[in-house]
Amino acid sequence: MPSTPATTPDFEARHGFTGGSGQNQLNPIFAREGEATDFPLDEIPRGESLPGTAYQVVHDEAMLDGNARLNLATFVGTWMDPFAQKLYADTADKNMVDKDEYPQTAAIETRCWKMLAKLWNAPDAPDAPGTTGAIGTSTIGSSEACMLGGLALKRRWQHARRAAGLSTEKPNLVLSSAVQVCWEKFCNYWDVEPRYVPITDEHRVLDGHDLDKYVDENTIGVVAIMGVTYTGMYEPVAEIAAALDRIQTQTGLDVPIHVDGASGAMIAPFLQPDLVWDFRLERVASISTSAHKYGLVYPGLGWVIWRTVDDLPSDLVFDVTYLGGHMPSFALNFSRPGAQVLLQYYLFLRLGWEGYYKVQKASQDVAVYLSQAIGAMPAFDLWNDGTDIPVFAWQLAKGHTDKWNLSHLSERLRLKGWLVPAYPMPDDLSDLVVQRIVVRNGLSRNLAESLVQDITDAVAHLDALESPMPLDGQVTAFTH
Ligand SMILES: Cc1ncc(COP(=O)(O)O)c(C=O)c1O
């Protein structure tokens, strides 16, 4: 069924969409050429079309993507308030890389990463008490931020090895088998051997156990994840740091940590302020986050911060001119949107610490409500409960049924518009399939109650089947 036309003749007249043919006078607009006919899909159309027509066609196709707010698979923000939307529209033309042309946006970027450095307890500069000794930058998301964090680890290790006259042929990075795919890419693109520590039922996250079997003189660093993508659980950064301290005592190897705080770095400071995971731990050299996850900004924005300027080797940093002076730049991209940085600053001012606390707490309350309701259903066993980041996963209770699996439940929930993915866990638990919910700002308690009802109904339907659901064509893969 067509949606309400997003533009009206009045809107079009006010915005100068007057077209020569008079077609824009037609009402309903779906009868226009282009809407009543067809656009080619794989070549640029020969002629022009009215802006209202092109708008409506693109708008309607995007509508087929479904409702982003019901997408419980994504960590990425799907709601911002009307002031943020206005600011976004006002500043969509700014290119973040043009620091000389948009010096105020550049200054705001610096303010933002300094605020984050403080939030993550970076030490002051030794020669300037009260000012941060950290250095940071915005990125397009956590993936770029992790690449930059990883590159700095690699370059520091190379410098130290060369200075000692040692080989730099075989760098390796130690990380959990449950890392997000950006770390596999980092290792692949920059020729670093990934040393995956498998997760098991006993060690559900990387916790420092057996770390000495993976770390050696070629280890550029260890990645600790605050909010594992598969389940939302925190890796205990302090325990990983303590294991590395023991390794240093025994072997002399001084191995730094990069914290991939894609989600958790914007949750833990508010909801678990006493948890020590950040620059309070000396071993933590750098921290990254996705501003577009629990930073609450629309995609794509991320941040990465190094504890001190020495943790970011200067030969990775380029100089850009800025206000007639110079500004350090470390990035993979050149051009990228500046508006998101302004949106982040808007949120820091708008919400402050207390506002962030309230928003994150509301998401966590909904996650805990949902995990309790789902955990109480006989069909399921919880894997975790959403009290780290507001994300949790569950598995099918052993022996509950042989007629359906979690992918069937996922398909059934799609009928109601909910996207709740089911997927296998990584090594060594790849036989285990879990289902996960990511609670974000905008999933209200009321919506969550509807979801519980829909899950209850779906399970009742599946349990009542007389024969097993077919398994052919089931999609069990999910991109993390
Ligand atoms: C732990 C972790 N690291 C990195 C990423 C990549 O983040 P982005 O999508 O911002 O590039 C994700 C995304 O889900 C993640 O969960």
TrEMBL record:
<dbReference type="GO" id="GO:0006538">
    <property type="term" value="P:L-glutamate catabolic process"/>
</dbReference>
<dbReference type="InterPro" id="IPR002129">
    <property type="entry name" value="PyrdxlP-dep_de-COase"/>
</dbReference>
<dbReference type="InterPro" id="IPR010107">
    <property type="entry name" value="Glutamate_decarboxylase"/>
</dbReference>
<dbReference type="GO" id="GO:0004351">
    <property type="term" value="F:glutamate decarboxylase activity"/>
</dbReference>
<feature type="modified residue" description="N6-(pyridoxal phosphate)lysine">
    <location>
        <position position="293"/>
    </location>
</feature>
<feature type="region of interest" description="Disordered">
    <location>
        <begin position="1"/>
        <end position="24"/>
    </location>
</feature>
<dbReference type="InterPro" id="IPR015421">
    <property type="entry name" value="PyrdxlP-dep_Trfase_major"/>
</dbReference>
<keyword id="KW-0456">Lyase</keyword>
<protein>
    <recommendedName>
        <fullName>Glutamate decarboxylase</fullName>
        <ecNumber>4.1.1.15</ecNumber>
    </recommendedName>
</protein>
<dbReference type="Pfam" id="PF00282">
    <property type="entry name" value="Pyridoxal_deC"/>
</dbReference>
<dbReference type="GO" id="GO:0030170">
    <property type="term" value="F:pyridoxal phosphate binding"/>
</dbReference>
<dbReference type="GO" id="GO:0004058">
    <property type="term" value="F:aromatic-L-amino-acid decarboxylase activity"/>
</dbReference>
<comment type="similarity">
    <text>Belongs to the group II decarboxylase family.</text>
</comment>
<dbReference type="GO" id="GO:0005829">
    <property type="term" value="C:cytosol"/>
</dbReference>
<keyword id="KW-0663">Pyridoxal phosphate</keyword>
<dbReference type="InterPro" id="IPR015424">
    <property type="entry name" value="PyrdxlP-dep_Trfase"/>
</dbReference>
<keyword id="KW-0210">Decarboxylase</keyword>
